[in-house]
Amino acid sequence: MGRWDRLAGFETFRAKLEANLAMDAGPVEGLWIYMVTLFEQFGLPMWIGSMPWALLSAWLGYHWSLRLVIKIRSRRALRSNS
Fold it and tell me: pTM, whole model, 2 decimals?
């Protein structure tokens, strides 16, 4: 993402996590704060990095399921004609 001068490692993640878990909030509000903070810190790079994998998996899954449906329908057609 071009932020080479501001790379965040595990220590940054752990510090943010500890700060969020130490907040005095209800369970739903605490979960919301935790999710928003993690997305602001790490979400966008993870989302951008996961897009190629998601697109490839979706494409492969579509073609695999299409073949499976065609095969099942052809077997049913053969059985119904017999």
Answer: 0.49
